[in-house]
Design a protein that fits this description.
Largest sheet: 2 strands, antiparallel
Order of helices and strands: HHEEHHHHHHHHHHHHHHHHHHHHHHEEHH
Distance between the termini: 56 Å
Number of helices: 26
């Protein structure tokens, strides 16, 4: 059976899991059985993806007699869809294993279990769809299944608002994709299959409109600024295993939609498209991490961090478009490989971090970082794996996040070869934004790990926390090891991405796995090279040597002295740094200009015996300048149009007569 057929059987398995959950209902066996079956099917899908990606068998297709009459439903598994299928199902396997333990604490499991499998099925269907109808149907199915998971805790008003915003943004994105496919199908003589659109001669204006619509439609699902507003609302609302899938996996399906349409179906590599995507990616990376630094809700911080990492991915994709438009195949392959490598990396470490946040929530019942602290003593294993995730997302060597960002910088350093002046100015500026984002990401996750796991507990819940169960720890440890392996042995990942680069950029990077000392040399030895394995062993050796020397040579005499207490002699958690105080310098520099930050300090008057109050308000400029005015305008218009429901019969007849006159004028002018 061809690989695409096996992929469809895996999708059927995911759908069957939803049926099993519905049949079992509230029985105690439902949670482990449903998530255990999800783990098995996801691992089978991982094997199918690896066979296609590494086996070199070529694309496989199948047409089912469903869908549009005379067209059917076309499904295709090639290198691009196989890579994203690997990303999706690797995240699904980890989330299923994690949820075997986490799901025991769900207050209403029947609001999650029946929709978990269909959500995974919807994401895989998008990756295999090879015609516009199947793609859009799968896209909407994925959105609706994930929406049910977002609003699973429906008793919280904030979750209902999150679900409404998510559904509105998803519908807007689908509308843009629908119009894009309509334009491409029209250019292809009404052929709605991707093969027919790919073979059609697309004019410059049609290609430009389809590209812009794809950026908006797929970017709304991926989380490009200013289309990101649903992420910080939906991700904290969902259960933690679903948050990991939404952030680490489903946003990558949005990236896949953009790559499939712009790189494959449209195939019009334009320098202006590269410029637009690069600038959008740079702005998204910088603003996303600034949003994250100012958060005190741990899951909300991670959601905004996803926005930053999606920006890094789109920087690489925009560079690939620009290089390919100018016939620089090697540079295009480098930029595309960097973007796809970061897609893989982000799916791993962001899932790990959301799992860690879920473990903290399970142990303490808190997501507010200001009420945590000291968890490294209560949850040492969770602290270690969470630290690995923080180091990975902060792009510290020798972990995987560093490699993909380093490759992106290598592609940026090749930008002087681009002939267009717009790109010559924009790409270095975006490189500076990427460097700023990398520095702020380091500060953001120093804050996250330090405030949550270090210092003293700030609440009784943190002081009484206990380590989570083995299923949750195993899932986190598995992802932590993947972060280490992908960072120390990146050549194998780059070589695995070679079929995708050849499919889209027509060129791939030279083979890397066979280089001496397993080094990574994307351009040339004289220009750049990286060896994560050597760095890894150096860090282990230097750390071990330092520990041994300190233990052997340090004095055994115990000396006691007063510690530095920042001027506060009280032994109280109140005197510690908080997340808000840690972020204050960054907030003072960027907050007022970029976010309209409002700080209010209410100090007690002389003689008053009450505590001072500090209130901080951070406003997302997307809501402040775009969606807020738009929503208010729609509301005002709806209120005015509502008067049309209360007209007299004479006014209704006059309105109908006026409408007829206008239509007649339009027809006359058209003719």
């Amino acid at each position: 059976m061809p690989e695409v057929g096996l992929g469809l059987w895996c999708i059927a398995g995911f759908l069957g899991i939803g049926g099993v959950a519905t049949v079992l209902g509230q029985r105690a066996v439902a949670t482990p059985l449903v998530y255990g079956l999800g783990l098995a099917v996801a691992l089978a899908a991982v094997l199918v993806a690896l066979t296609t990606l590494l086996g070199g068998a070529g694309p496989s297709s199948v047409v089912l007699p469903i869908g549009l009459p005379g067209v059917g439903a076309h499904f295709r598994l090639d290198a691009l869809s196989a890579f994203f299928m690997l990303v999706v199902n690797l995240g699904a396997a980890a989330a299923s294993l994690y949820a075997v333990g986490y799901g025991r604490h769900e207050p209403a499991p029947m609001r999650v279990l029946p929709f978990f499998g269909p959500f995974l099925a919807g994401m895989n269907l998008v990756l295999l769809a090879a015609d516009a109808f199947s793609f859009l149907l799968s896209w909407e199915f994925m959105s609706l299944a994930s929406w049910t998971l977002v609003v699973s805790n429906h008793r919280e008003p904030a979750n209902i608002r999150a679900g409404f915003v998510y559904l509105a943004m998803a519908s807007f994105g689908t509308l843009c994709l629908l119009v894009a496919f309509g334009l491409l199908a029209t250019a292809g003589a009404g052929d709605f299959t991707f093969a027919g659109m790919r073979g059609a001669t697309v004019g410059g204006s049609v290609a430009a409109m389809a590209t812009v619509l794809a950026i908006i439609g797929a970017g709304s699902k991926a989380g490009l600024v200013p289309l990101h507003v649903w992420l910080p609302l939906a991700h904290p609302a969902a259960p933690s295993q679903v948050s990991a899938l939404l952030s680490g996996v489903m946003t990558k399906v949005g990236v896949y939609g953009f790559v499939r349409i712009v790189f494959d179906v449209v195939g019009d590599y334009s320098s202006w498209a590269g410029l637009v995507v690069v600038v959008a990616g740079g702005a998204t990376a910088a603003l996303g991490v600034l949003y994250a630094v100012m958060q005190r809700d741990l899951k909300r911080l991670l959601a905004y961090s996803t926005v930053e990492n999606i920006g890094i991915v789109f920087i690489g994709l925009g560079l690939a478009l620009a290089f390919r438009a100018n016939g620089q195949g090697g540079a295009a392959a480098l930029a595309l490989t960097a973007a796809l490598f970061h897609v893989f990396n982000h799916s791993i470490f962001k899932s790990l971090l959301f799992f860690g946040a879920g473990a903290v929530l399970t142990a303490t019942g808190e997501r507010d970082m200001e009420k945590l602290g000291g968890l490294i003593h209560r949850m040492p294993q969770t602290a270690v794996v969470f630290l690995i995730g923080c180091m990975s997302i902060a792009a510290l060597p020798p972990l995987n996040g560093f490699v993909s960002e380093w490759l992106t910088f290598q592609a940026i350093l090749l930008s002087p070869q681009l002939p267009q002046w717009g790109l010559k100015f924009a790409v270095p500026a975006v490189g500076a934004l990427l460097a700023l984002a990398a520095a702020l990401a380091g500060a953001c996750f120093v804050k996250a790990f330090g405030v949550v796991f270090l210092s003293r507990p700030r609440s009784p819940a943190a002081a009484q926390a206990r380590e989570v169960d083995g299923f949750m720890l195993t899932a986190m440890l598995m992802l932590a090891w993947l972060c280490i392996l992908a960072g120390t042995l990146p050549g194998f990942v780059v070589d695995a991405l070679a079929p995708v680069a050849r499919e889209l950029a027509f060129v791939s990077l030279p083979p890397q796995a066979g280089l001496p000392w397993l080094s990574l040399v994307p351009v040339a030895d004289s220009r750049s090279s990286y060896n994560g394995l050597i760095i890894f062993f150096f860090l282990i050796a230097s750390g071990t040597t330092t520990a041994v020397l300190v233990h052997r040579l340090a004095s055994r005499q115990t000396r006691r002295g007063a510690i530095w207490d920042c001027g506060y002699p009280l032994d109280s958690p109140v005197t510690q740094y908080t997340g808000s105080s840690f972020a204050q310098p960054i907030r003072r520099v960027f907050g007022t200009v970029a976010f309209g930050v409002v700080e209010t300090v209410d100090m007690p008057r002389p003689g008053e015996r009450r505590a001072a109050r500090f209130r901080l308000r951070v406003r997302d400029p997307a809501w402040r300048f775009l969606y807020g005015p738009l929503a208010r305008g729609v509301l005002r218009t709806a209120v005015r149009l509502n008067r049309l429901q209360f007209l007299t019969i004479r006014r209704y007849l006059a309105l109908v007569f006026a409408a007829l006159i206008v239509l007649m004028l339009v027809v006359a002018i058209w003719r």
